[in-house]
Amino acid sequence: MLKSKASPISLEQRNATRLRVLEHIRTKGAVPRIEIASALQTSPATVTAATADLISAGLIKEIESEAQSKSGKRGRPKVLLQLDGQSFLVAGLKIARQMISIILVDFEGNEVTSHKFPLDNARMSPTDFVSTIQKALEETCAKIGGSVGQLAGVSIGVAGQVDASRNFVHWSSSITERNFDFRSLLSNQLPCPAFIENDANLVAKAEQLFGLGKGLKNFLVVTIEHGVGLGIVLDGKLYRGERGCGAEFGHTKVQLDGALCQCGQRGCLEAYVGDYALLREMTVTGQNNELKTASDIHDRAFSGDERAASVLARAGQMFGLGVSNLINLFDPECIIVSGTQKSFEHLCTDEVMARIRNGVISVDAALPDIRVHHWGDLMWAKGAAAYGIEQISILKVKELAANAS
Amino acid sequence: MLKSKASPISLEQRNATRLRVLEHIRTKGAVPRIEIASALQTSPATVTAATADLISAGLIKEIESEAQSKSGKRGRPKVLLQLDGQSFLVAGLKIARQMISIILVDFEGNEVTSHKFPLDNARMSPTDFVSTIQKALEETCAKIGGSVGQLAGVSIGVAGQVDASRNFVHWSSSITERNFDFRSLLSNQLPCPAFIENDANLVAKAEQLFGLGKGLKNFLVVTIEHGVGLGIVLDGKLYRGERGCGAEFGHTKVQLDGALCQCGQRGCLEAYVGDYALLREMTVTGQNNELKTASDIHDRAFSGDERAASVLARAGQMFGLGVSNLINLFDPECIIVSGTQKSFEHLCTDEVMARIRNGVISVDAALPDIRVHHWGDLMWAKGAAAYGIEQISILKVKELAANAS
DNA sequence: GTAAATATTTTACCGACTGAAATAAATATG
DNA sequence: CATATTTATTTCAGTCGGTAAAATATTTAC
Predict the structure, then answer these.
(1) What is the reported pTM?
(2) Is residue B235 exposed (0-12), middle (13-18) or buried (19+ Cβ within 10 Å)?
(3) Which nt has its C1' nearest the CA of A52?
(4) Which of A142, A295, A329, B286 is close enough to A343 for a disulfide, judged by CB 3.0 to 4.6 Å?
(5) DSSP B144
(6) In angstroms, what separates the C-alpha of A396 from chain B's closest C-alpha?
(7) How many helices (H) and strands (E) does chain B have?
(8) pLDDT tens digits for range A94-121
(9) Which domains occur in chain A, in start order?
């Protein structure tokens, strides 16, 4: 292998082109080279070179275009390119309070298998954290008769503040230590690259790669679970802020000196729409003994309980206020409201949507789309997997360039 | 002139490098080539080529380094590079309700002269708008015995929604027509390139080029005049949102179904901190006959009027709430509060700052700086000039590449 | 005066991208 | 069926930006 004298700038440009081609194929599905060239405003020659590399790396493949003969058009037929789904296996993990959800996906993001690993301790030391993850991964891989060694990458989602570029966790509810650098621990314990990210950012990634944000440049993803999270995608990239931690949408204030929030402050959005906030409200009615989740309250409201309905309605009003503020500030292409449970139906009612629309300063251009995405309970794990796939793609393209010597 | 076969990508890369060098020199002042190379992570050879071009375009110049001999260090002395302030004259205009403020600046942003041009009509037709601007420019240039022909560029700031990339005004309080394309009108009437932008974005530009945002990558500029505006700089670039209109910070909601705002909605931040909101509050006290501006209320409060003080305090509380929301969402490096008058002192009190800090979810990293910038009354015009200088720089670098044939 | 140190410029070269030509693979046409 | 036409892809020579290394410039140290 000769030593390459390529300038770093050239390399970066080359990698960027490869990645743009790859992302275009991921977004559009089966496309011929000529369309990639025109879509990316580049020359067919470049696309030939880039796709040749991606094929040799096993990231994409040519497929037979059955529909070709039907097209009835003259000329050499287009050769369609597609992701090579079989090429890699990626694991996505979400660390929650009582369990770890794991999903194994192929390179296209298709679920291969999934698993739930119960947790005794919601908070673990970094060492326990990683070894528990390893155990969870082993169990998951065993399900398909495989081993952890087969994984191309592992992506881990946690609640909290993470500097993903350094696998550095400033703080997480799942980990006892603060400001811990997971790089060496992860690379020592796991046989493949591993990545840690904030969970809301991961869901944003999932929407971008596989979900309702496919192909969009500027959009926001509001995640609803027990609390409210936000992932920001600007110019096609996750925006992480200066300190690398996620946007704290749930703790934006919607009421001056308002309701007390778990974070200790007053008037946070989460103090009005979070699960615990709803349950707290219900204590006033003296009914909360039987109520355990927001879904219970929803059932109660649906069966005619006016107090329950009013609690949910108020949450919806506050949520609408918060979302309209997001639109006023970010002016995004689209806002995606993503949640796993049925329990956020009260945040997607016509009344809430109307409130959002009425809270946005109108311009001539149409309002951003507000799309609601009801995920299964693997939402967070899928988000992690999406991020993993993206990071593995970047790694593979880099390797490609390094080996090109 | 030979026809160049340069690929568009090469050209873009070249221009980007030239501009990065130019911006570095603008930010750092007098710097030697070697430091530019290390700061921009590029090779000295590239810097030599880039600076040679910029010098030939008259954008920068070499200066004698008097302090050289004192340095007492061996080796060839550094040759310092600096902006060539004399190279271009740029006009910045702010169109307000009752007047146009104009400032002429050199390429370094130094004020050459300024002028105020009274307006009869706050709202003008596009044709009148441009011809009034032309008249105002002529008067201004006459002040220094020059003519409009000498200007390298004109930059115009208006309140409203502007797509600056197309000189397209969706809506502005200064213009009777909506959705007007000013491109042909401006290029026909003015002898130099002209640019229109939203005024809050312009102030953000001024902070970035000359002010407290110098050298920063991610920061927010909150502008205070009659209302409240916001300019967003992310990754060194103005963020304009999907529809190209400014962020509507003044119309983010800080109270569910709160005070009525000029925009017709309820609970907008501006409905609590805008001039008219303060004056409205004072009507309740029966005192507002004598009060015309927020500054009057401030005087009143200072001389012991508790009602006036309470009106201002409430505005401060709401403002603090709004700003803490900005920090929670954007996690910026720095927030700059910029205003022209003394009338926003009540928004910069220790109490307000404490409220902001208390409203931000704390992480280990330090809170973003909150810096207050008291400008003279030419703030907006200077902002326009800053934008003009930037746009002219881009144009000149493009010309350079075109002539390089 | 010569050596050493540091800044800048020159030179030879690399490599990403491109346009144009060549090639490939289909249909249309007679 | 052979040939022309059309369209997709690949090959190839060339351009250009950036770089490393060598050369040059200009200073201080001794």
Answers:
(1) 0.92
(2) exposed
(3) D10
(4) A295
(5) T
(6) 24
(7) 13, 16
(8) 999 999 999 999 999 999 999 999 999 8
(9) 8-86 (1.10.10.10), 88-192+380-400 (3.30.420.40), 215-374 (3.30.420.40)
pLDDT of residue B310: 92
Give the model confidence (pLDDT) of B289-313 as tens digits: 677 777 788 888 888 888 889 999 9
Per-residue CB contacts under 7 A with strand D, chain B residues 366-405? 401, 404
Average pLDDT of span A170-176: 92
Q: What whole-number distance in Å separates Cα of residue A323 and Cα of residue B178?
A: 27
> Which of A326, A136, A184 shows the shortest CA–CA distance to B251?
A326
Contact between the CB of B77 and strand D at under 7 Å: yes
- Cβ of A362 near strand D (under 7 Å)? The reply is no
Task: State mean pLDDT over A237-249.
Answer: 86
Burial degree of A289 (CB within 10 A; 0-12, 13-18, 19+) = exposed
Query: Averaged over A48-73, what is the pLDDT?
Result: 84
* Residue range B37-64: mean pLDDT, rounded: 96
* Residue of chain A whose alpha carbon sits nearest to that of B8: A42
CB contact under 8 A, A331 and B243: yes
Q: Report the helix count and the strand count for chain A, using DSSP H and E.
A: 13, 16
Mean pLDDT of all residues in chain A? Answer: 91
CB of A365 within 8 A of CB of B241?
Answer: no
* DSSP string of A279-308, one letter each residue: HHHHHHTT-TTS--SHHHHHHHHHTT-HHH
Give the total residue count for chain A: 405
The per-residue pLDDT for A276 is 87
The distance of B267 to chain A (nearest Cα, Å) reads 9
Give me the pLDDT at residue A66, please.
62
User: What residue ranges in B164-240 does DSSP mark as E strands?
Assistant: 168-172, 180-181, 194-198, 219-224, 228-234, 237-238
One DSSP character per residue, A175-237 reads BSSSSEE-HHHHHHH-SS-EEEEEHHHHHHHHHHHTSTTTT-SSEEEEEESSSEEEEEEETTE
For residue A353, give the H/E element and its range: helix A350-359
Rounded Cα distance between B18 and B25, Å, is 11
Q: CA of A74 vs C1' of D3, distance in Å?
A: 15
B178–A321 C-beta distance less than 8 A: no
Best probe of the A interface among B252, B262, B263, B323, by most A CBs < 10 A, is B252
> DSSP 3-state assignment of B180?
strand
Strand C reaches within 7 A of the A358 CB: no
Sequence length of chain B is 405
> To which residue do tokens 């009582």 refer?
A98
- Residue A73 pLDDT more than 80? yes
CA of A61 to C1' of C29 (A): 36
Q: Is the CB of A52 under 7 A from strand D?
A: yes
B242 and A368 within 8 Å at the Cβ level: the answer is: yes
Write out which nucleotides of chain D lie closer than 7 A to a protein Cβ. Answer: 5-21, 25-29
Task: Write the pLDDT tens digit of every residue in B363-402.
Answer: 677 889 999 999 999 999 999 999 999 999 999 999 988 7
Which chain C nucleotides are covered by protein, judged by CB under 7 A?
3-20, 24-28
User: Does the structure show a pLDDT above 70 at B288?
Assistant: no
Nucleotide nearest to A2 (CA to C1'): C14
Backbone angles phi, psi at B169, to 5 degrees: -100, 110
